[in-house]
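Good morning C.,

I know you're traveling, so I'll keep this short. The sequence:
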Amino acid sequence: MKLNYVLTLLFVLNISLLFAQNPLLLKNKDFERTQNFEILPDKNYTFEQILTDTSLVFIKNPEEVDFQKTKESDYYWVRCSIKNNSPYSKQMYLSVFPTIENTLYTFDFENNTWTQTTTGLKVADYQRQPNVFPCLFRANSITTFFTKVNVEYLSKQPYPVPITLSLEKKHVFTEKEQFMLILWISTCSVLVFFFLYNTYLFFIFKDRVYLYYLIILIGSLIYITSVRNHTNIFLPIKWLSIEVMSNGSFFFFDSNAVVIRIGLILILMGITKFTCLYLKLATYLPLWNKILTYLLWICVCYSFLLIGLILGANYYNIYLLFLENLLIGIVILSILCVGILSAIKGYKPAKYFLIANAFPLLITVALVIYFFLYEIVNGIGVKVYLIPSLAPNIAILSQTLAFAVALVARVNLIKDQLKEKQLESQKLEAENEEILARNKYIELENEYIMTDMITAVNNKAELEEKMKVEINQKEELEKRIEQEAKQKADLQAKLEANQRELTANSLYLYQKNEMLTNLQKQIGNLSYKDTTTQNREGIREIKSTIKNDLRLESDWDNFKVHFEEVHPNFFKELNEKYPTLTKYEIRLSAYYHLNMTAKEIATLLNINPSSVHKSRSRLNKKMEAIDKEN
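The tokens, ready to paste straight into the viewer:
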């Protein structure tokens, strides 16, 4: 405590010297950058030495400091005094460039002590923006603070780097952070919603296109989280690689940059595989399918090689990143070319695919043009910061929505395939009904043949019995037996022929039924995927039409031929006796002549049994009337 009091006293005694150093006047700007401060190379000084040792001379900050030439120290002390002429205290956020690892020392007048805060790219402080210090500038007073700046990485660079201070009003900084948080949460919410919905569709349709769309969404979530440094909040791991450019600016590669590349790799893999499956490149454009696959793996391998080179060998070069971006651009252009070629070949979903890729690209270009042509002209401010911040989010969301539209077009294609399957099923149903009718006819014919065979057998037995009794009529009986045997052989041959035809038709029917069953399962699956009531009613109509459309005319002609073989002159005598009978009534008379039941006749004529009874009643009345007239 005594040391704190001594330091406080020394700070108050030295304040007059600070006044003489022409302090920076705090202006009423949202954002301000300055180089009006003093620097001192660090020689392992303590902060107490910095405050008390008058032999330590701070020099005016040069425009650029060549840390490679000086090599005086890995740290520099920065002293700055800021005067607030306003009658109100101002809360602002201070940033010190370079932003590697900076420690800020400020005096806390309430607790009467110096406080220190450390932040930067190398510090895991769980903040979205590194190297941002909250500061309070009291009303009508001068505030002095010290910053210990780490320049270890810069001493190995070939170009000098400027040291600058930036001040930003608290409400401006808070507004930006709130906007970035809301933008991140809203974008992630939309992506999560699409991810859950399309996961449900993937398990329904079992279509790998949806799987790669889910990979795109996962990559988008990772990219959106890391592109605006939100991973710094969740990822405490920190490493750094820096390259200084000739103009004094430097590019750095840290853990957040690794996460960004992982997200981009997932997006690129998902889009490429999505393209190959969606456009059926393996079938329609096999050469382009191989080209896209090879380009994808070259790009992915290069990205991982770049990450390993930077993290393992600590070698960072901006041209390596340029080559990576060039490879990504080549893959994207190849995807667009494939979409155009597919559209030229007349593949219907290709136009939706082109929209899904071109739409986010046009939006991104429009935002960039707006940023450069409008916002920069109107000055640097919060709006300038917000517009480019929106670009990746809008690009990701627009691509997500456009790809969803492309997937809807794919669902419509599945519906068209379902209709084709339904037509094919209708055709097979008709063929199946025809075979069933043919088999029914063959079964009836076989029954008649079996009856004739039984009769022939009985006749043969009677003849054999007569041969024992009537020896004198042996020759005549032998002739009759020979005739009966021949008749039996003919009937047996006819039966075997009909039996072979029945067997062949039964085998054909089995194959048709098996094919029809598979088609019905496909229709059921497709119908289940498409849950619209209109398509379900259409499928029921198709099944009802197939069931009721029986082809009986050709079967009746075949039936008459076989019927007349068993009952010759039946139709001739019937027409002579009842010339006014209709074709339907003649058919009904033939069925009754065979002693068929009403149910069997109803099955053959595809009518209800009650209608058979009515028709029989009308037929009997008509015949009775003709008999009375004769």
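Safe travels,
E.
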